[in-house]
């Protein structure tokens, strides 16, 4: 796997992150206020410790005289602990709330974009954005932003305290402090590019893993499992090596920050030590400043420790923001009630292209008569499944429209329209439940007699009765325990049980043997009467059910008419028939 290109620093990602700050302003202010108060209590803590130290070292005071000052430290420690915990809890709740909101927003947006859009995406990358990407955004708002703002306040407040006490130490702190963010920025620029490359690697790796897992059965059948395992191992090793390079830079930045702060503290200590030795400073005064010096650099070091969260968030934003920026039709955009009865469908100059630029429909126009069976015929990729997806609202055409009994599809109430449709996809999904429960997804109130009628119409009753508990037999996820043909017949029975006026069949008999296919077709002749049926036919034998055939090629209608007319015309349909019959060399 070649390394991904170096990403440019996209200011849009940073602007997108900042757009969430207003809605988190209140909890962020609370977290910063609590963190700042905790930092300011350091001054009181240092003053008490310096006073006790001076009493013990300079004045040789007994313990009973210093005891009240030592006891005064206890509430200071307790209050600091409570403030730090409170700041963390407030920031965590704000980040968790934003995480839930963003995850829900991204899921809803992907759902509105629909499976037609999702089909062209790397789903592993999308899942990685939903999980790791959203988590990275939460850490940015819950940890990085509060730390960055506390860092801007606490050191400045400590400087205001130190300068009146010892201007020399204050000057040292003032001059050395900018070195830490400067080096953090210099090292962070390189680390940021490497981190964003890691996000791209992780996206590709996630997509590879998901594709491998989904195609595991096919890989085993083709004997390619060992080869794919080697590829996955190689990709994982490259990702591990790249991760170690990122960590090396991150550790380097931590070492530099620790070195600079340690040298600065040592410089303050040396200057204070010499002046104490020369009698130019009181012990309590020097001890007080020396105690504050590490606390002065502590917020800056903490910021360096969480700086990688900012880089992670920017990398995640560059993956999530483009998805959210894709225009999607709002749910239930129309409000018209779908006409009653079997609908008439008219497709007018439809154009549809996926996000990767691949065109599926190019000016597709035809009509499906009410109460008739219209078959869509064509080679794979000609646009048959896309047309069915557009009818289901799984995508929106870039041009053209679909008209349902005189009403544009976009003007119909989405939920009411979907209630009028039953679908049998190429790969039906059966859930981990009983056969009866899977069928009742179409009609929850259906009794056993209705289930049997639907199963009989789909030629599924015989094999269901042969199962250990019949209709009460539990199935595995995706119909585990059934053959492909049995799962297909259950999906067909579920669609017939719905008794909808519009039935969409995406090669409903593709997984059936010749005998089962004939049984299903004989049953369907009766069941399809009075319904509008749009059928994507990959195997032309199913055209015995069709009243009208539409031949697609490259997203356009090249022929249409009755099966008998098209077969006699000698055009594209006749050529497809000859190819499937094996007469074309």
Structural description of this entry:
The relative contact order is 0.09. A 6-stranded mixed beta sheet has the order 6-7-8-3-9-10, with helices on both faces. The protein has a 4-stranded antiparallel beta sheet with strand order 2-1-4-5, covered by helices on one side. Residues 1-8 have low confidence and may be disordered. The protein has a domain at 11-325: ABC transporter type 1, transmembrane domain (ABC transporter transmembrane region fold, Up-down Bundle), CATH 1.20.1560. The protein has helices at 11-18, 25-57, 63-113, 115-118, 123-165, 167-176, 179-214, 216-221, 225-277, 283-325, 384-391, 414-418, 435-439, 448-457, 461-465, 484-498, 514-527, 563-569, 572-581, and strands spanning 345-353, 359-368, 373-377, 399-404, 407-408, 421-424, 502-506, 532-537, 548-553, 556-561. Strand 7 (502-506), helix 17 and strand 8 form a beta-alpha-beta unit. It starts with 10 loop residues before the first helix and ends with a helix. The chain is an alpha/beta fold.
